[in-house]
Design goal:
This protein is of the alpha+beta class and 288 residues long. It has a single domain, classed as Nitrilase/N-carbamoyl-D-aminoacid amidohydrolase (4-Layer Sandwich), CATH 3.60.110. It is built from five helices and 17 strands. Strands 5-4-3-2-1-17 form a six-stranded mixed sheet. The termini are far apart.
Length: 288
């Protein structure tokens, strides 16, 4: 089975309605160009607001499912595409999540993934806003294959990719918002981007699946988002890579039949020694 992935790499402003309209236009264009599964960037409805701690920004959260998922579900049904929609979820007063909704190609809401790993770094003050996800790692059967979704900081953790793949995910999607702090870019920029891309390509190899990461582009306050959204095959080869500074739609056909071929020839799942992995549940293995 061959499916075409579409990644919407773009910019967001504080005008939510404009963000929605532009996103809907991009999704429709991706569908017209043959996309079957379309993934949006992390928190696409607003700028990346986690650069500062500001209680007034909680007003931008909404229930999931809720008004945006309903609107995106209608769009998915009209276009016949699977949609992955990253949102700021209000679960209850004082409980908020960084959440990705999964909508099938008939417009049906399949479920959601709540970001598990929450960073707390300069200009990435996400622990102030987001409660760690509690739904576990999941994969969904869609019209165009079985997909798993993880979010941004999750992409650095091989355990998250592995557990999602063990649920049967053929494609791992990573809605993302990552960039450079301009004062550091000259010294660390290449290394930071290389690490980000390499670790995810490693997930594709280790799990014999496709990986699709969609990032923002453009400068917002103190961060220069580096774009370069990409799709990698089960060998870790880059099939498509976006630019650093342009809003664009990345499209790539993926042969899901390759997954079985790769996993038969590189049987990492077969050769896993699961009886030896218990210590992974420890924070650190002290010599004592």
């Amino acid at each position: 089975m061959k499916v075409k992935i579409g990644l919407i790499q773009g910019r967001s402003t504080w005008d939510k309605e404009d963000n929605l309209r532009r996103t809907e236009t991009a999704v429709r264009e991706a569908a017209q160009r043959g996309a079957n599964i379309v993934c949006l960037q992390e928190l696409f409805l607003t700028p990346y607001f986690c650069q500062r701690e500001d209680a007034s920004l909680f007003q931008h959260a909404e229930p999931v499912p809720g008004p945006t998922t309903e609107r995106m579900a209608k769009l998915a049904g009209e276009c016949g595409v699977v949609l992955i929609v990253s949102l700021f979820e209000k679960r209850a007063p004082g409980i908020y999540h960084n959440t990705a909704a999964v909508i099938d190609a008939d417009g049906s809401y399949l479920g959601k993934y709540r970001k598990t790993h929450i960073p707390d770094d300069p200009l990435y003050y996400e622990k102030y806003y987001f409660t760690p996800g509690d739904l576990g790692y999941r994969a969904w059967d869609t019209r165009f294959g079985k997909i798993g979704v993880l979010v941004c900081w999750d992409q650095w953790y091989p355990e998250a990719a592995r557990l999602t793949a063990l649920h049967g995910a053929q494609i791992l999607f990573y809605p993302t918002a990552i960039g450079w702090m301009p004062p550091e870019k000259a010294e660390y920029g290449v290394a930071q981007h290389t690490a980000w891309e390499t670790v995810q390509r490693g997930h594709a190899v280790a799990n014999g699946c496709y990986v699709a990461a969609v990032n923002r582009t453009g400068t917002e306050e103190n961060l220069e988002f580096w774009g370069q959204s990409f799709i990698a095959d089960p060998y870790g080869q880059i099939l498509q890579r976006g630019s650093t500074d342009q809003e664009e739609i990345l499209l790539q056909e993926c042969d899901l039949g390759l997954i079985d071929e790769v996993r038969c020839n590189w049987p990492f799942f077969r050769d896993r020694r699961i009886e030896t992995y218990g210590p992974l549940q420890k924070r650190f293995l002290d010599d004592a």
